[in-house]
Amino acid sequence: MDEIPHELIKSLMDLGLLESEAKIYITLAMMNNSEVKTLIEFLGLSKPNTYESLRLLEEKGLVSLINTRPMAYQALPPDIGLEVLLKTHIDAKEKAKKIFSIMDKEKFVPKSSEALWTVFNGESINYKIKDMIQNAKESIFMISSPKYIKYLENADTNLKFDIIIFSETSSFETLKEHFKDKKGNFQVVNEEDMLNIVASSKTKDQKQFEIYKEALLMVEYRNMIMLAIDDEEVLYMPPMSTDSLTAINTKNKAMTILMKIGLSDLTNQLS
Known about the structure:
About 50% of the residues lie in helices and about 20% in strands. The chain is of the alpha+beta class and about 270 residues long. It has two domains: about 5-80, Arc Repressor Mutant, subunit A (Orthogonal Bundle); about 115-270, 2-Layer Sandwich (Endonuclease, Chain A). Strands 4-10-9-8-5-6-7 form a seven-stranded mixed β-sheet, sandwiched between helices. Strands 1-3-2 form a three-stranded antiparallel β-sheet.
């Protein structure tokens, strides 16, 4: 048997297995079944670690004891085993979500310690965008590049939409196709026009205008999004050119209203 791919071990660890459990499950799945003695010799694990890992894998339903003398185990086929692991995570997620929803926050977090902003990084930003849109009850207000249009496709059609997409390539017809079953205000704004408007809103001096616009050209607008939901929550990711994206989010009523007013001023200039 070839050396076990590290990527496969890591994938199973991401699904909740310990490293030793992952190695044993992979080996058993490839062998179909094996004596414990063979597993220990092949993997170089200690005897106690091997038996404990097998016990945990058996609890998870991934392996079964098929013989006691000598002790031998059989693994679920990978396609079934992976579904078992995934279901375990989904069930745990739903259970945790339910418990979080009924917990009394006041008993755990003093009022003074509540954060004004929550920071999201990397892939968690996409999950947050999706979560906000799915939980919108009245309205969605968004200014972004075409990169984030896909998250609006499954939004409730009864919501009020106010969407501005800035792009050099997308047209209004393309945008209209995405939102043909939704009602509201939908615009596509040329990036150059947007830069001129934003720069002019910051300064009236021509020299300062050119400096400000030059600075705006250095940022990466494909990463930018400003999303306001129901006038209750705002997410903002600045247009930074970096591999490590960061977005800030707030449910603070005052901050949400102030940011929404700022957004409205900009959209009035773009209209």
